[in-house]
Every structure is written in structure tokens, then in C-alpha cells.
Amino acid sequence: MVKFLTLLAFCCFQLAYPQQPLYKQAEIPIEKRIKDLLKRMTVEEKILQLNQYKLGANTNINNIGAASNEIPAGIGSLIYFGGDPEFRNQIQKKAVEESRLGIPILFGYDIIHGCRTLYPIPLAQACSWNLDLVKTNSSMSAKETVLSGVDWVFSPMIDVSRDPRWGRVAEGYGEDPYVNAVFGVATIQGYQGTSLSDPYSVAACLKHYVGYGMSEGGRDYRYSNISKQSLWETYLPSFEAGINAGAATVMSSFNDISGIPATSNYYTLTEILKKRWKHDGFVVSDWNAIEQLINQGVAQDKKEAGMKAFLAGVEMDMIDNIYLEHFKELLAEKKISIQSIDEAVTRILRVKFRLGLFENPYTTIIEKEKRYLQPESIKNAAKLAEESIVLLKNENNILPISPLLKKIALVGPMAKDKQNLMGSWSGYAKSADVETIFSGMEKEFSNKAQLNYAKGCDFDGDDESGFEEAIKVANQSDIIVVCLGERRVWSGENASRSTLSLPIIQEKLVEELKKTGKPIVLILSNGRPIELERLEKFSDAILEIWQPGVAGGTPVAGIVSGRINPSAKLAITFPLVTGQIPTYYNMRPSAREAKLGAYQDKPTEPLYWFGHGLSYTTYKYSEATLSSPRIKPSEKLTVQVKVTNTGDVSGKESVLWYISDPVSSISRPLKELKFFEKKEIPAGNEVVYTFEIDPNRDLAYYDEEGHKILEPGIFYVHVDDQKIKFELLK
Ligand code: BGC
Questions:
Q1: Closest by alpha carbon to 148, among 61, 75, 55?
Q2: pLDDT value at position 7?
Q3: Cys-Cys link to 604, which of 8, 461, 598, 712 (CB 3.0-4.6 A)?
């Protein structure tokens, strides 16, 4: 009976839509639709699907080349720089209505930390320890992205990096594998929603796969020497988490991994990603990366480069046109097979079907005013900025500024700057929308204190002519707020620096201001940790605001005035001097006690460790308690700590839980972050934080073949400055 009814329904459908091929019927399962479509495609049509062209003006100065005018209707994907949904629809019409099979184009773009409403840079987001907020903001960013005509974002970047000379530390979530994993997952969940086919979902792209953050010497696009052990324990975990969270696509990276470029690396792209992790979306190469295999010394020409990338597992060629130009020839020579082309096309079509592009290929056009910068997203952008600003130093509680101090000198090149507060990769954001620190302070302190402004100097150069005015306004004021930092182009792609210190002119300005004897609050906006060896000595308070995006000066002023209590903690260590690099909290133990083997000329300890961040209130941690002193591998252990807000203002405290394993077959890091939680604690109140230890997840570790090892023995759980022992039984 059921079968009969199904047949009847099918026949009715066929009668209603007689010409509709199977692949165009939304109710048919995706895999069947793909098979049907593949059967109808010519080899040329299949090869076109494997290519990505660019469309519109390219604003990434690192990627040279004129925008493509001639877009073949059957192209697989476009990098769409335009942000104009009407133009996208025109191009899409070509594909859907003028190509033989009507396969929609997938429009991708670099929406990294916000589309038009710009959020703080990802490194700053990680310092908020607020996964819910990051997820909410990513979903708001997805909505603006969809309305701009983009279906696919090249984000999140989850490259662990322990070398802040590398400019791209700004784009990721810092030095820790777990932090990169969980912030990556929150971002994917925000972008992709509950289903990729939801009207405001975009497909995520995990990048850069893999090990790019290890780029030698912090120089970009370089060689990376990564042992298999560190590949598995440091660089792969964030990607594994992203795949498990359902990330639709992956981008291969520019670096090579101990001699095998990531773009032609069969082990990482196929063995691990596709065979072990069962990723069924597709891999896109990075910009020009297939051709670059020639520079990297593994291919003699473009044809060989294309063959190597494809055989390793890169399904889509980003802007190189190599697949387009050479695949027919490679097929004829039997160097690649039609089966592998079918497999690659299947993966790309799968993402298009999942996004619902066959049913809804066009962007809905709504009024420009309703597309972007909606009150809710502006509010959330400000919240995230508030929670990502780190109070690094606050001697004598100089912050928040006392209401008794009526004259504030606001000095420095960042004070009235909009552009640089945006950070790198600013999507379709406009600097006009960014609030400066000056205007944020003006609003915050209106009728409360007088602001005396002087620029003092530029970000670099040696022009000291503005010092005099700066010293004058400082002398006329009760306190000096000096706003320094990096230009936005000093971090991000192709923006490595040999030193983490700010240009001498900025340091000199503070040195001169210090001579006035007035207290100094240093506000820093930058895309990487800064070397503060000298500046720290001149400053009574230091506020790291990173690159906060559109909210700019509003949250900064709120923290300076005390309206907002800072709650961020560093997701990356600040070395004291550049020469300490690499320095990160989860190092392996040394052979001799710490004072041996240390630097003789400088301290070996960094200035501010991962996890450092002050508040305007104080927290007291109770003695942590374990549910049991020993567990079996199949059991779970609960550890709890009570945190009391012992100060006068409400605060948000992030409790970070670490594990250490002092004896194991492969030496383990001194401690490893396994869980964190951020909760609001009103003044005078206490809140209990709980971490449930799951031995297979939290105590096991990878060996160099990627097998998880769980060894019985003594472990410690660390919270605050406590270290609590427990035993894992056999
Ligand atoms: C960058 C990627 C980016 C791509 C497309 C490359 O140069 O490395 O992160 O997604 O360009 O713009």
C-alpha cells in the first residue's frame, strides 16, 4: 500500500513537472541528485566546476591580477569582491539560465571578522573566552554576507601560531590548540546555523590546512618544519574539531610541511582529512598556491603542479586556471582519471546542493539600510569588543579614572584614527562607521572631565615636532591617556615583522610624557603581541584593545571610565623581548631546572603569560575539590571550584582548567588547557565552576601516527594557582 501511494505521488509529480530532470527536484536525496547530474555532464563541464575565478575589484594587495571579465557560465566558483547582490544575480543568471545544465555558481569571499559590521579581530575574540557571543556574532555576520551575495566565507582561520612575528596571528585564535578548536567551532556554528540550506547560512572554510602558523622565523609563505608528533598534537586538532562540527570546506595552506607542500600533501589532504576524518566537502587551494608548487620545488611546470595538487586531494583551483588548462590533456595521458574528476565534482556539487543553491540561486535584494549595521549587530559587536579588551597592568588601581581627575590628556596617533582600529581583512566595512577613541572618550566623559588632545607623533618615522604640544597638554592635565599601536597593514597576510616592539618614535613619546610626572594609561591597538620591555616601565596602566572593529572607541572609553569592568584574558603570550620567541605556556618540560639554560642577558619569562588579564574587582578561588582521587578510563571525574567576587563591582570571570601528565611515554607539555567557562559574578557573590574530566578526551594524547594513547598513572588538574593530583587506573 505504502509503495503504491509513493508510486502514485511520483507519477503525479512527473505529470505536473514533465521536463524536470531528477537533479532539479528538491525532494530527491542529494546523493541521487548528484549522480543524476554527473551522468549528464560532459568532461568540459566537469572540469569547469573544479575552478574558481575572481569577480570584481580585488582589495587584497597581496593578490595581484586584473579581475576576470569573461566568466564562463559553467564555472564552479567565483571569489566575489564586489558585495553587490544585484551584480551577483546577473552573473548567477548566466549560470542558471544560460548554461546547458543550469548549475549555480558558488560565490566565496574573505569575510573574516564581520562583513559590514566589523567585529574585533579573531585573536581579540579569543581573549573574550565568550563562545556564545562569538557564535552569535558569526551568525549576524553570515546574514550580512548572504545579503551581499556571498554563499561561502574563507573563515575561520584556526592556525595555531606561537610566533607573533608572523602577521597572520591576528587572524587566528592564538597559541593554543584547544582555544583554536573551540573558537573555530563556535564560528562555524554561527556561519552554518542548524542547516546550510537555511536562508542566512553561509558555508565555512577551515584554513589554512595545515601548519601555516609554524612558518619559519615568522616570515610569511615559508617553509615549516613540523614533526609528525607536533602535527598531530598541535596543528591538526583544531581542524579535526572543525570537521567534526561539520565545516563545509577546507583551504590548503601555502607552507610546506617538512618538504611536502600542503597543497600537494596526500597524507594531510587525503589520508587524514578524507579517509580518517571522513570529510565529504571539498578542498580549495589557496590563492595561486597550485602554481606556487613550482617555486616550492616539487613541480617543473603548471601541468605537473596541477596534477600533484589534484592527486593529493585539492578539488578546487583558486584562480590559477591550471585545472582548466591542463586536465583534458592529463586525462588523455591517463595521469588523472575520470573517476577522480567525478569524485571531485561530486564533492563540490554536494556543497552547492547542501546550500540549497539549486533551489535558491539568487540573493534576495533588500534595501541597503536594512542589509547592514542593524542595531542588534552593532550592540553585539560592542559587547564582543568590551569582552576582548585586556587590562594588562593597573598599578595603584589608576584605572578606572577617578572622577576627581577632571582633566585628561588624550595623546597619540591612534587617538583619532579610524582605519587602523579595523584590523586586516575588513570585509565590506567602511572606516566611516568606526568610532574613534577620541569620540568614544568625548561622549563618555562629557560633563565629567575635560579632554586635552594632541597627536604627539605618527605611527612611525622620526618627526618629533608634535612632542612639544603633547607635553604641553599633558602638563595641563591630571592624567595622560596615550593611544599607540600598529597600522592595520602591519599585521595580517604578508605582514611579518622582525621585532614586536613599536617604532622608536612611539616609545620616545611615552618616555617624554613620563617626565611630566603625571600618571600614564597606555592604550594599545595592534594585531599581535607587542614587545613592552620599555613601554611597560613608563606606564601605570596598560589596556590592550587589539583592533576592535566598528565599536572602536566606545568600549575603550567605557573601560577607562569604569562603566565596563574588563573581563578579557590573553589567548597569546606577550614575550618580554622578541628574542624570547617562541614562548608559549604549553611548552614541554626542560631537562634541567628552569634557572639553568636560561638567557643570560634577559629574563627567560615572558612579560604576560597566556591567560593573563586583570579586572576592576578581585576574585577568591576556594580550594578545588575532586569527586574522587582516582578513576577508571571509562569513568568521569568532576572537579569544582567556588569563585567569590570579593570586590565592589560585578565582574565576569573566566576559569581556565588545565591538565598535566608528569610521566608518559612521550613527554607531555607542562600543562594543557582542556576546558574554560566564563560566568558573571555580582559583587559579593560566589559561583561554582565545574569541569568534568573525560579520560579519553582530556587525558589521552596523540602519537606521531595519530593514534590516541591513554596511559594510566598520576595526573594533575590545574586551576588558578592550584594543582590537584589524581590517578587514572588501568
Ligand atoms: C589568503 C587566504 C585568502 C585568499 C583569498 C590568500 O592570499 O592566504 O587566507 O582566503 O587569499 O583571498
A1: 55
A2: 42
A3: 598
| Residues 193 and 227 both lie in one domain | yes
638 pocket-lining for ligand 1 (C-beta < 6 Å): no
Give me the amino acid identity at 610.
F
CATH number of the domain to which 240 belongs: 3.20.20.300
In this structure, the answer to whether residues 209 and 316 fall within a common structural domain is yes
Q: Is residue 128 part of a domain?
A: no
Does 286 participate in catalysis according to the annotation?
A: yes
Longest dimension (CA), the chain: 92
pLDDT band at 67 (very low <50, low <70, confident <90, very high): very low
Place of cell 574554560: 676
Q: Answer yes or no: is the C-beta of 287 below 6 A from any ligand 1 atom.
A: yes
Query: Can you say whether the dihedral through the CA atoms of 82, 87, 90, 96 is positive or negative?
Result: positive
Place of cell 576546558: 675
What is the rounded end-to-end Cα distance, in angstroms, of the chain? 56
> Does ligand 1 lie within 6 Å of residue 154's CB atom?
yes
- Residue 695 three-state SS: helix
pTM (whole model) above 0.90 = yes
Distance CA 452, CA 473 (A): 6
Whether residue 62 has its Cβ less than 6 Å from ligand 1: yes
Please say whether the beta carbons of 110 and 427 come within 8 A.
yes
Cβ–Cβ < 8 Å for 140, 380: yes
SS3 295: helix
Query: How many other C-beta atoms can be found within 10 angstroms of the C-beta atom of residue 89?
Result: 17
Options 151, 286, 317, 540, the catalytic residue? 286
pLDDT score at 66: 47
Q: Are residues 713 and 571 part of one domain?
A: no
Q: Which residues pair with 520 in a beta bridge?
A: 480
Cα–Cα distance for residue pair 398/269, rounded to 1 Å: 52
Q: What's the CA-to-centroid distance between 286 and ligand 1, angstroms? A: 6
